[in-house]
Design brief:
Helices cover about 25% and strands about 30% of the residues. The protein is built from 6 helices and 13 strands. The protein is globular, with a radius of gyration of 17 Å.
Amino acid sequence: MAFDLAAAVAEFWQARGRGEYFPSAWLDRLTLDQAYQIQLGLIDRRVAGGERHIGWKVGLTAKPIQEQFGFHEPVFGCILESEPSGSVLQAAELIAPGFESELCLRMGQDLSGTVTMVQARAAVAGVHPALEIIETRGDLTAQIALAMADNAQQKTVVLGEPVALADKRLDQVACRVDLNGATVAEGVGAAVLGDPLNSVVWLAGKLREFGRTIRAGDIVMTGSFVRQFPLTKGDAVRVMFNGIGAVEVRVG
């Protein structure tokens, strides 16, 4: 049976409305390209309903994350909201949440299609220390396509104050992840596709396949330096990126 995108988006939209984020009728039925098409269709519906598409996430970029989920290429999702560093998220409003420790790039220029590292660097208007807050709304490892249709686990992002990129080497930025006062992980930017700017290069090329572009003003979450950690009520997270700054969040 031929893939009917409009019908699929409508079915996923209805399932989402009843709290079914990985619709059982679609288990093992989607290619990754079809899943991305559904994702973008659902985002278009959310934007039509009043939400704002403010940027993109690139995920599964670091080897520890890829090994954690058994998938070995980057993925993308859409960002529709952000929170400032120091925010308190409510556990009751989250579905099996977790966090990833990332640099977020605010873009000052449009980018589309094949771009070089030099072009990607020139397009960056600022760098935020950041956390991606994810939700495990289904089994990502077993159903990667459904996870992409469901916007790649995205819930929100927490942003620290931005700094200029200038001559900073993002591949050499080190981060320390503290959870409830204890250091639980350390990593460097080179873990993210060799350099977080490579996430922008990859994203620009991938989005072209779906008729989308990176726009000036967008934020791009470039991928976690270390593995993903779960979040529970009472948790306090602080991540320090050397030369960039710190970002914090708590769960109430």
